[in-house]
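User: Design a sequence. Structure:
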């Protein structure tokens, strides 16, 4: 399936975004971006040597504005779209998705002059299933690296499962455990807003997360529900990516913490490719050994 040629960057209206509107990011985000850079660089070097592959693409489901402001240094730093655009050998196509029109406008400016960049100002759950993933059918001899890096629990399980079913896409997926703890995994789950519960159902794929997130324990006045530790929930999701979604390789995720030591999210990698999984695992372990990321 070929993409609508009205989507390439050069056909889009340009709008400006001031540096003040860029996201301010912490050290944990900079670490995540370095992990993405390391893997994307290794991925492109391997894929360019595969004679049977017609094209390998880069997909960013929550692309943002392309750059950020480092909280630690105050400098403007490359975000995941710019990192991908700078990788050599280059990807054959780039697909950047974001709902914020100001951010997509800046992406268009950053990618100006490239005819292989598509930018979508739409919900990634719809765009990925209807416009992007169909391009990477197994029979098309196209492959892709996909980053799903939201601010909260936005990616739907259907997107994750479809990526696994295609067999052509490596994914990095952020499980925003901080968002889940704040809005869903309350000590009394009955207090959670029904809309938040439905959002978790869409992310997890069903309501079975409840049996993972809560266990029944003896209390002074009978049995009560106790919330499971973050690492237990993360392990269950890792197993789900392997057993239910069907990815052949799902290394242990990376827990990334804020300056106060709280886990903000778990960065997962999932693939059908053993070599890709080995590379991802090696990159994850490199940062674990530096002591930057630890525990669960």
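Assistant: Done.
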């Amino acid at each position: 399936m070929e993409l609508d040629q009205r989507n390439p960057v050069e056909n889009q209206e340009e709008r400006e975004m001031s540096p003040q509107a860029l996201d301010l990011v912490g050290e944990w985000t900079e670490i995540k971006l370095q992990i993405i850079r390391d893997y994307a660089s290794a991925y492109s070097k391997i894929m360019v040597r595969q004679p049977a592959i017609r094209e390998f693409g880069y997909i960013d489901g929550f692309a943002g504005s392309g750059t950020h402001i480092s909280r630690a240094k105050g400098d403007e730093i490359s975000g995941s779209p710019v990192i991908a655009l700078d990788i050599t050998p280059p990807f054959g196509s780039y697909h950047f998705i974001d709902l914020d029109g100001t951010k997509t406008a800046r992406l268009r400016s950053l990618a100006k002059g490239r005819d292989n960049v598509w930018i979508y100002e739409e919900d990634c759950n719809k765009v990925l299933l209807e416009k992007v993933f169909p391009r990477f059918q197994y029979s098309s001899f196209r492959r892709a690296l996909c980053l799903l890096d939201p601010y909260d629990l936005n990616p739907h399980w259907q997107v994750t499962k479809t990526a696994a079913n295609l067999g052509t896409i490596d994914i990095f997926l952020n499980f925003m455990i901080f968002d889940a703890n704040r809005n869903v995994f309350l000590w009394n789950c009955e207090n959670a807003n029904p809309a938040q519960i439905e959002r978790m159902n869409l992310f997890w794929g069903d309501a079975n997360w409840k049996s993972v997130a809560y266990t029944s324990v003896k209390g002074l006045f009978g049995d009560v529900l106790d919330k499971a530790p973050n690492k237990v929930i993360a392990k269950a999701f890792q197993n789900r990516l392997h057993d239910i979604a069907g990815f052949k390789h799902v290394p242990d995720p990376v827990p990334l913490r804020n300056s106060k030591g709280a886990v903000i999210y778990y960065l997962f990698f999932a693939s059908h490719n053993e070599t890709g999984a080995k590379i991802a695992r090696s990159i994850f372990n490199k940062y674990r050994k530096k002591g930057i990321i630890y525990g669960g």
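The domain at 9-185+229-289 is CATH 3.40.50.150 (Rossmann fold). DSSP finds ten helices and twelve strands in the chain.
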